[in-house]
Model the fold of this input.
Amino acid sequence: MKHLFYFFIYIGFNLSTTAQYYYIPYLNDQGNPGQHNTQISIQAVNSNANASSLVKSGWTLIQESSATPVWSPVQTLAFEFNGHPVTQYKVSTSGILTFDVNSITAAPNTIPENLPSTQLPDKSVCVWGINAIGSDDAIVNKTFGTAPEQEHWVFFASFSLGPGFTYWSIMLEEGSNDIYIVDQRQSSDINGGLTLGIQVDNSVGVDVTGSPNVQPVSGGTAVSSDDNYYHFIKTVQSTHDLIGKLSGFDISPNPCSGQLRLTSNRDEFLDMEWKILDQLGKTVMQGKSSNQKTFLIDTDKLSSGLYIFKLQNEDYTEQRRLIKSSY
Done:
């Protein structure tokens, strides 16, 4: 997918002054994130030899069902977690993906907690609270697309949540190194809540509001059109100034809810054009610096969401993410 342009119907997002990630929920039947995976949510394996399954569709089985939580074998993947390269991961049948493959931490139980939790190893992504006790429950993975825009999907297929079944995925996006937790399908008789989020270490974590009792919200159909997801993005600096300095430019506050202040001590700033772009690259706001080194931009007319703020002249272009919040 295009890593610079995103848009979302804003439901709310959680930021912490210590968290290394923040998240954006897409909870209005958004479909799958990315542009490559159109796989319907069916069982990974099937006791009926004539039935369709994910494995028959080219997915790789990495962990079968288990009466108690276990870790999968270690998988290989080049990725960047929290700004640091990683090359391997493993997954538990209780819904934890960790890049800390050398951790001796036992696979966490299926009773989720808020993050950070001492039950989890460092560098973990959580769909915590599901379990793989059903005979056809399984974890599979598959990489979609071509470099440098590949999507690596880890699919918890037909997992159990109380007496019902539920389907979830963790998607790791090449290039952006963003992480997605995807809510894909469930039966009407599920019972129980989940912790969704990322744990950097035992002192830093960010979880979705409502954890450890987040409820699945996607529909019961196998198609992806009613899927929903949570988009996790690494922060650049702090919650008060996620964008930091742009080669001599300052922009604040970010996230912003009203006026955005743009400042610089550089002379070339006196002849700059600014633009705010949406997901499709469409300009939704624009203006010029008007020979000022400090000026304000009123963002009240922008819908809450994630945009790209671009500064440019004939010789120079700089762009960064801009978050418009509702508070």
Notes: The radius of gyration is 21 Å. Confidence is low (pLDDT under 50) at residues 1-19, 236-246.
